[in-house]
Amino acid sequence: MIRNRIVTQLMFLLMLFLGQNISYGTTVIVEQADSLRQIIQNKQGEKKINAQLELAMLLFENENSEAKIVAQSALSDAKQHKDKSILMQAFFILGRIAHETNNINLSQTYFDSALVLANELDDLWFQSDILLRSGINQHTRGDHLEALQSFNMSIQAGRLADNFRAVGASYSMMGTVFRVNGLYDRAIEYIIKSRLNYEKAEYVEGYAWAAYLLGRIYADLQLNEKAMDYYKQSLATYEELAKDDQNKSGVVICYEQIGILNLKAGNTYEARKNIEYTLEIHKASSSKYGISNAYKNLGRIEYASGNYALAEKYLKDALEGKTDVGDQLSKPSIYQYLGLCYLNTGRTNEGLDMILKGLDQAITNNQKRIQLDIYSELSKIYLSLDKLEKAMDCQQQLINIQDSMLLGAVNIKMEQLQGIYEIDAKNSQIEDLEKQNEINRLTMQHHRTSITFMIIGILLALIIAAVILFFNRRLRQNNMQLAEANAAKDKFFAIIAHDLRGPIHTQTAFLDQLHQEFDSLEKNELKKLLKLLVSSSENISDLLDNLLLWAQSQVKKMQVNTRELELKRVIQNTVEKLQQSANLKQIAISLDTDNQLKVLSDANMLQTIIRNIVSNAIKFTPRGGSINVKTFASAQNEVTIKITDTGLGMDSEKLNKLFDISSKNHSEGTENEKSNGLGLILVKDFVEKNNGTINIESEKGKGTSVIVTLPQA
Predict the structure, then answer these.
(1) In this structure, is residue 626 part of a structural domain?
(2) Please, what's the largest Cα pairwise distance for the chain?
(3) Which residue among 213, 496, 545, 556 is buried most deeply as judged by most CB within 10 Å?
């Protein structure tokens, strides 16, 4: 029957997606095959047989002959090995290979043998796979009711074995059976079930195939917009998969159906783009069948666009390709459109002959739907030629074929509908039982765990109480840290907004004055202005250094590189850089340092500590005062640095807030130098990072002493 041949064509497409094929690029397949051949050559026993089975599965779609030889060798070895599991797999793979070569009866014989062994082994996983393949064979032969029963048994075994991929494939095939028989609502329901099981199996390609099938159903129902949505869903998934394995078979079937939908909608531009893309893919894979299909579709598109000469060329190329691959089913529609091209270019007799040739082929193939299309076209042609009798004959043939199709559909449904609904009812009962069993299992589990939960609840309450207490303490600490961080942030922005902006504005004003009055300024005045600019720049530079160091310290990005340092040399180098500032205020700096003292400290941090303390002493010591820097070894392996000035000093209230970053009460220097308090905060931070201590002694009007201790080397 023609239905069987059509189904065979459909099954060829289906096997591209439902098989357990390994979708790798050609290079990867070749490498894997070579690796398996080496194992077969060098190993014996079970390892050799498993490698043979794996190689046969890898090759069976493209290299049937070698796959068959390898699988038969594995079967022979498995019989000698007397391992039922391996024997079962060998029968199963041979069944797959026989199906691929359209030897359906031999394929089913192998599957029956595999199923007997799977039942003996109680291997539900393989049972579900074998029953699925048996159902596909039965569907290919047109035995729809038997196929449905096999798919149904596959679903039951697959559920018990959690073989969701086989369950999804079985639901997909059941949906296809319903679609073939015109039961579209049931077909949609089963394909949706298929998608859900493919999701459980995380089988993305199966999910895409289910979307494609839904598109075909809605296209049959003339719901083209919904069909287009599903084709695009399927296409998006296949395109993602093709990025990894370079296998564009799924992409091409989606573009083909999208192109046909666009053609039906009259959008020939988009249809042409879609089909030209399929042609490009088929040419890349050297698929004669695919190339001829693309030419046939392009011919239809160009005919619809009125490009009859180009349509004729495409259709002739398609006809040649179909002849090469022996595809008789596609020829009637090619002859039909070739004839229409001839008619539209004034070759009436040739056109009629070609269309009648297509009709004869469709009758030979028993393709009733194509016969309907051709008789409809012939009726219009004969009317235009005033051949009323022939036009009437065509109309009568249309009626006869429609009656035949309707009667055939009714007969199919009458024969199979009862069986289909019985299977449906059985499925529903099984699902209800499974739900009830699950409810019972959960109830028993609930009773068993209630007491455990009570005990755990008491323990959890104690643990939660302890955790709450712990986190409450942590929260208080975090709040304190957050408050400090906010204060630091406010301080940072305040310094930038006021202490940094002020000197920069002052410097800008000086520069502007210098620019405006440069020619009129005397040398002494110019020198004075430049001196002020140098002083301002030094202040800004020091402030920026402190800001940068302090910011790095706050975000924990500053590493402490402790090493042995000669204390006297570090102090001399640092004080030397500050000597000019001291000289400007006529302040004497004296050093009383021990040549032998060495400390363990970070060199940069130690320089910053000394620089900031001495800078503060210069800032708050009146003109003509003095600063003394003294070092000495103290108890417990420590070195003390004591920096004493004869400056303004501080009262106890100010002394207590000296290291408080949130404090905004900062005094100016003896000659109105700006102070922001950041220097001493940075000093304290760096001293502590170097495992030292800092202490300040001061009395208002009597000067200040800053005492720093660091570990002795």
Answers:
(1) yes
(2) 133
(3) 213
